[in-house]
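> example.struct
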């Protein structure tokens, strides 16, 4: 806590002493929508005994991923999945409350928060390093296991986005995109009737190259710039 004996209200919610979902989350959502927010007044007073012995659970970011369809998916929004993660997480217990001496050098650099021994930090690092998602990434250094796309393709797409002056790269599922795209050969000028069929599928490599060729085409870029200049849509920030 601070040298004046106070604690940030956000830490009260972090420790579960007040309900984040029903109290603070709605206020944050209103603030993000630029709506008027009536912040709660003075929060409750607490004794040291209210903190001592309180338990927390240690969850590493890697614990929140599950492999689905060949890629690792962030499951942090899945209540059932996270409940299972929480039930199997390491339990921590608050064993002390630190109050810096007023005016001391300690008070200037000791920040409010939950402090833990370095050994626990090492344990967390080792657990993350040995997790399935991290090991999968280490065993596949050329592929982004979170998207299934090669880093070379991601870098190429990033280079194209940078050349277009974009600050944000939009990721999409190529497999889903490709599975939804078919070509109508009747709309194409195919001289050989035998080569016509009801549908012509495009390989992933061909689709990627088509997208790259389109985005790198100077006329297409000029067309996009004109639309942006005329206010038809805004550049991503």
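> example.seq
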């Amino acid at each position: 806590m601070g040298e004046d004996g106070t604690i940030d209200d956000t830490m009260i919610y972090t420790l579960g002493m007040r309900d984040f979902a029903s109290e603070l989350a709605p206020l944050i959502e209103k603030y993000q929508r630029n709506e008027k927010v009536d912040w709660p007044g003075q929060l409750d007073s607490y004794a040291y005994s209210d903190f001592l012995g309180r338990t927390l659970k240690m969850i590493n970011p890697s614990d929140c991923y599950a492999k689905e369809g060949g890629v690792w998916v962030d499951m942090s929004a899945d209540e059932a999945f996270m409940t299972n993660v929480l039930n199997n997480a390491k339990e921590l217990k608050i064993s002390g409350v630190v109050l810096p001496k007023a005016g001391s050098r300690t008070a200037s650099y000791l920040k409010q928060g939950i402090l833990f021994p370095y050994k626990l930090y090492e344990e967390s690092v080792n657990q993350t390093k040995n997790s399935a998602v991290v090991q999968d990434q280490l065993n596949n250094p050329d592929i982004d296991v979170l998207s299934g796309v090669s880093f070379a393709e991601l870098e190429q797409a990033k280079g194209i986005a940078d050349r277009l002056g974009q600050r944000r790269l939009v990721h999409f599922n190529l497999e889903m995109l490709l599975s939804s795209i078919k070509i109508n050969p009747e709309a194409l000028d195919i001289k050989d009737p035998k080569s016509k069929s009801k549908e012509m599928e495009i390989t992933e490599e061909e689709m990627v190259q088509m997208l790259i060729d389109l985005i790198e085409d100077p006329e297409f870029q000029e067309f996009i710039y004109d639309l942006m200049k005329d206010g038809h849509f805004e550049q991503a920030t």
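> remarks
The two ends are 37 Å apart (CA to CA).
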